[in-house]
TrEMBL record:
Residues 49-115 form the ADAMTS cysteine-rich domain. It comes from Meteorus pulchricornis. The lineage of its organism: Eukaryota, Metazoa, Ecdysozoa, Arthropoda, Hexapoda. The keyword Glycoprotein applies. InterPro entries: ADAMTS_CR_2 (IPR041645). It comes from the Eukaryota. Keywords: Disulfide bond, Glycoprotein, Hydrolase, Metal-binding, Zinc. This is ADAMTS cysteine-rich domain-containing protein.
Length: 121
């Protein structure tokens, strides 16, 4: 983590304990998922960030049920993402896909629908 910023008089100052708790939190795997920002390069306007269904499974503590670069079917944007339970042959419905999740060949999920990238959001 970066060194503490030097503040002016109006800056909010954190206690050493609060600062230590921030450092501990951001050193954990869960924090990486909460700050997920690994969009793929797109040649068209982006609705927001692109998150694969597989990456979303991993952030919820499951194994992906699909390949990392695989899109979810176009008719499944309003349905929970299916993930594999770690160390098991069982699957679980994790969460609805985030807006920006790839669906079909050239579309993304947006408000529970699979839409073209060029749509005005």
């Amino acid at each position: 983590m970066a060194e503490r910023a030097i503040c002016s008089e109006s800056c909010l100052k954190w206690s050493p304990q609060a600062y230590a708790e921030f450092e501990e939190y951001f050193s954990k795997q869960q924090a990486r998922c909460n700050l997920l920002n690994y969009p793929r390069s797109l040649d068209v306007p982006k609705p927001k960030k692109v998150h694969s269904a597989a990456a979303q499974c991993e952030c919820y503590g499951f194994q992906p049920a699909m390949k990392q670069d695989e899109s979810i079917p176009e008719d499944e944007c309003g349905l929970p993402i299916i993930c594999k339970i770690r160390n098991s042959e069982d699957f679980v419905q994790a969460t609805l896909p985030m807006d920006g999740t790839p669906c079909g060949l050239t579309k993304v999920c947006w408000e529970k629908k699979c839409v073209n990238y060029g749509r005005n959001f």
